Structure formats: C-alpha cells, structure tokens
Amino acid sequence: MELTLGDVSDSIFASLGVSGCRNDLRIPAHSEARDCLVLIDGLGKNALEEYAQKQKFVTEFEYIRTLSATFPSTTAASLTTLGTGLPVGKHGMVGYTMRVPNSGNPERILNALKWDERVDPEIWQPNPTLFQRATSSGVAVSHIAAARYENSGFTRAALRGAVYRKANTISEQIAATLEALRAPRSFSYVYLNDVDEASHAHGMGSERFLNALEKVEALISGLIKELPSGVRIWITSDHGMINKKDHVVIGRNNNLLTDVNLMAGEPRVRYLYLSLENMEKVAKRWLDYFGPKIELKTRSEAISQKLFGDSVSEEFLERIGDLIVIAKNDLILVEQERELLQIAMVGHHGGLTREEVEIPLLFHET
Q1: Residue 308: its pLDDT value, please?
Q2: How far is CA 81 from CA 180, 258, 267, 309, in A?
Q3: What domains does the chain contain, in order, with CATH numbers?
Q4: Rg (CA), the chain
Q5: Peptide bond into 292 cis (omega under 30)
C-alpha cells in the first residue's frame, strides 16, 4: 500500500485519539503520548542511501518504510498534504506556482511559498488542518521553524492551528521542541530546510549539501539527548532531488509558448493554460520538440490516472494546467524571465522519477 505524508500525520494523530483520523501506519494508541515529527526538506530516500550513512540517526532510527511524495513532488503540495491529511486534489495546493482562476486578464499566478496578499489563505485552502483538529481534541500542537515562516500565507493555508515557536538555529529548535513536549498528549512538528537549500544551490552531494547533513545530525542528536524518555520521534521529508544536466528555456529560440495563455508550475513540471481549441496543436508542438524527454498529459488524463489522488474537487480544477508537461530524467524546463536563476540551480524536484518521489520514514523512541 502506497502511503504519503498525509498518512503519517493522520496516523500519529489517530494514535493520540483525535477523532476522524485514519491510522494506516497502525501506530499503537497512546492517549498521553508525546510525538515529534521532524521534516527534513529535500531529504529523499536516495540522499539518505547515498550520503547519510555516516550520520548516527541512520543507525539509531528504525527505517519504517518508504513513502511517496505527492504529485507534483514539491514542498507546497507535500506539506499541505502533511498538514491536512488530504491528497492534492482535495486540498487544492496543486504546485509551487499555479493559476488563480478568475483573477483578471491575464490571470495571475500564485507562488505558494511567497504568496499574494490578494489571496486569502483560508479560502484558498478551506479544509481544517490536522493541527486545528488535534488542538480542538486537546492535543498540545506546536510548529517549530524559522521565524520568517510564521505568518506566511502558506503557513496559514497549510499548517494553521499550531502554536508557532520561532527557532532559527539548531539549539533554538531543540530548546523549543523540549518546551513543546513537556505536556503529555503533545505533538511537535519541526521543519528544517538546509538540505533543500543546499541541494538547489550546489547540488545533492556537494560540500554544502554534506554540511547541511551535519546540521541534520546535530538536530537529531540533540533531540535524542535532550528530550525526556518516551517521546516518539519520526523523521521524514517532502520530496527527493535530482541534479539537472539538461535544460530548455521555454520561448527562447522555440515557439513552445505559441497559443499558451499562461505557464506555471516549476522546472520539472509545467502547467500550460490555454484555450480548448488550441489543445491539440500545442500538445503536438511540445511532443514534436521534446520527443521522449517529456511526458505530456491533459488535465483530465492526469486526474483519471489519479496523479492528484482519487479525485479532484471541482473548485480546484482550474488551478491545474490544461496541459501538464513532466520532464523526464535530468531535464528542466526554464522560464525565460527567470532563466539565470533556474539554470543556476543545480538540484530540482517536482517530477515523477523515483529519486524525486521516494521519501523515507524513520522512527526512534527516546
């Protein structure tokens, strides 16, 4: 059975007695348990296997299973699934950037991680989060991450309901987690993004990437040392990463944007928004240009293939591209207006390769 981050958070809260939560991981019920879920952004199973063997947490923690990232395999989609317990098609955070339907001519694009003050986070993602539901059930829920994320639109959309504890350093994160888990029946979500940032900037396996793994080790070792006996610690991630070797700048010396009204997504998965009458010729143009380097699907094909979960809520349909272009192997699809930035980035994610999709779940009890 393929499980996602939503199944992890749902299962933990089910074990804490939060009603309406599924426990697909079969975590033993414990009404006074204290759980710490550590999310290492960008630490895919491949990174764990290839580069983390020297880290103590790999040997001290039990490898529970391999999870599947959402589609797209990107932070905005995956963390909203973690926060709500819902698949992408039910929470509506369909990518890193996506169309805001009925937002003008031309329509606007929402960057989920930078947000847009014209978009109400609680309307954009209207489902109650697991953090809200658990808090209402008497669980002490904390969100521990850098101060800059506290009031972001994304946090308010995907992860609202927890007590936000600002922590910008490893020592601050450890101290905040210790404080958050003093009470029985408590849950702490700890977010660390150093691995993701290092992979994007310098590539998975780079010196900066290895230094980021040392920070992960310092965090996990500190939690094991400082947290009281009986705390259940879970380690997981939101997606894996590939190092790009090939790129195409969309619209530069090619006619790939002809008849396309809007392009969103990210370099590994592009959403093309266009008129129905242009669908066939745009699809042919992209397939003729790229051949086997891409996989191209219509919105209806992607939904029928359950890429976004069993179904997509009608209110979220138009956020998804009319055509979805998925880069294969190590190709990235670059926006002309962000050409220098996107080409400079070594590590990328969002697609359907095993390296991007497979994420680990590890466990240790103090």
Answers
A1: 98
A2: 23, 34, 21, 11
A3: 5-86+127-241+352-365 (3.40.720.10), 243-348 (3.30.1360.180)
A4: 20
A5: no
Query: Model-level pTM?
Result: 0.97
Nearest 5°: phi and psi at 67? -100, 170
Q: Which two tokens stand for residue 17?
A: 């007695």
Q: Which residue has the tokens 């980035």?
A: 345
Secondary structure of residue 348 in the 3-state scheme: strand
Assess whether pLDDT exceeds 90 at residue 55: no
Where does 55-206 have alpha helices with state H? 56-60, 75-84, 88-91, 121-124, 130-136, 153-158, 170-180, 194-202
Residue 54 reports pLDDT greater than 80: no
CA distance 74 to 17: 30
Residue 356: C-alpha distances to residues 204, 234, 243, 348 (Å): 12, 20, 10, 8
Nearest to 43, CA basis, from 364, 362, 363: 362
Question: What pLDDT is attached to residue 292?
Answer: 98
Q: What is the band of 53 on the pLDDT scale with cuts at 50, 70, 90? A: confident
Give the angle subtended at the CA of 224 by the CAs of 217 and 184, to the nearest 5°.
Answer: 135
Helix (H) or strand (E) holding 216: helix 207-226
191 in Cβ contact with 36 (< 8 Å): no
Measured on CA atoms in the order 140, 90, 359, 208, is the torsion positive or negative? negative
Give dist(CA 270, CA 327) in Å, integer.
8
Distance CA 209, CA 60 (A): 22
Angstrom CA distances, 148 to 153, 159, 231, 242, stand at 11, 14, 28, 27
176 has pLDDT over 90: yes
364 forms bridges with which residues in the sheet? 233
In 3D space, the residue among 362, 265, 361, 254 whose CA is nearest the CA of residue 320 turns out to be 265
